[in-house]
Design a protein that fits this description.
Number of helices: 1
Largest sheet: 4 strands, antiparallel
Structural class: mainly beta
Strand order of the largest sheet: 1-2-3-4
Radius of gyration: 13 Å
Helix content: under 10%
Shape: globular
Distance between the termini: 29 Å
Number of strands: 8
């Protein structure tokens, strides 16, 4: 679970196989999760980086090629930014300038 200061809510990441992998946002009352992405390995992650309009994360799959993925918080659209060699279990960001993929837009 990761706190989103822009939405003032928590993001929840669960599941491994079949329809299990999901990314959802927990309502402020902590009673309901709205699943934004579900049922695909592209939603299988352990940790996310929260941006104002998106989540960035590495996938954690042992059945598909792993990647760095961008999830648009408004639409739920996934963008595969770059394939990677192995599973991503952690995520972090540092520095003050926007990442290269954001500057290129």
């Amino acid at each position: 679970m990761t706190y989103d200061p822009y939405l003032e809510r928590f993001w929840v990441m669960v599941g491994d196989y079949d329809g299990e992998p999901r990314i959802g946002v927990l309502d402020q009352d902590l009673q309901r999760v709205t699943w934004v992405v579900k049922g695909m390995q592209a939603a299988r992650t352990a940790q996310v980086i929260v941006e104002p309009d998106s989540l960035l994360y590495g996938t954690n799959s042992d059945v598909e090629r792993n990647a760095i993925v961008r999830l648009d918080k408004r639409t739920g659209a996934l963008t595969r930014l770059r394939d990677v060699e192995g599973s991503s279990l952690f995520a972090t960001s540092f520095g003050s300038s926007p990442p290269a993929w954001k500057r290129a837009r």
